[in-house]
Amino acid sequence: MPSIPVIALGVALLLLLALAAISVAVLIRRRSNRAGGQPVYVINDAIDFAVEHVDPDVLDRIRPAGVQRIIEWSVHYLQGLAVPARRRRGLRVVAGGEGSAIEYIHGMLVGTGYDYSPSDIAAVLAGEAAYLAGIGALGERVEEGEAE
């Protein structure tokens, strides 16, 4: 017959395994419930991804803080496009930025004392678009002139 310390150790081990199994189940459930299985844009992840993937020369000029500023203004620009009245005027959402997005972001940055070149802004927006593609947040490519 096993001694009491062996039984206690066995019970403690079983409880520990049960707790671990419950923790794993909770994590799996949280991930599966996150946005109904839809991609989730996390701005800090987008910034980190862009910092890791932007051309080193661009990063030397604007630094990681510049990448953050550009992506934050990009999000602000895209939030503005979510306003129905602006969509009716023909503005479109384009991952990776286009002329109007780059102009907007450049103007906002200059207004706050940061004069990054449009090409550096475009490079960061390309990194953000790569992040969006990586999380599965991009839809089908729409060619110019196609109905939205």
Provide a descriptive summary of the structure in words:
The chain is mainly alpha-helical and 148 residues long. It has two domains: 34 residues; 92 residues. Helix 3 packs across helix 6. It is elongated.
List keywords for this structure.
148 residues, mainly alpha
Helix/strand layout:
Layout: H1 4-33, H2 43-53, H3 56-81, H4 84-88, H5 99-111, H6 118-134
Helix pairs in contact: 2-3, 2-6, 3-5, 3-6
Brief overview:
The chain is mostly helical. It has helices at residues 4-33, 43-53, 56-81, 84-88, 99-111, 118-134. Helix 2 crosses helix 6 (118-134), helix 3 (56-81) crosses helix 5 (99-111) and helix 3 (56-81) crosses helix 6 (118-134).
* C-alpha geometry: elongated
Instruction: Report the count of strand segments.
Output: 0
- Largest beta sheet, briefly? none
Reading the helices and strands in chain order gives: HHHHHH
Summing up helix and strand content along with how strands pair, one would put the structural category as: mainly alpha
Distance separating the two termini? 75 Å
Q: State the low-pLDDT regions, or none.
A: none
What number is the mean pLDDT?
80
Total domains, how many?
2
Helix tally equals 6
Rg value: 24 Å
- Helicity level: 55-70%
**Strand portion:** under 5%
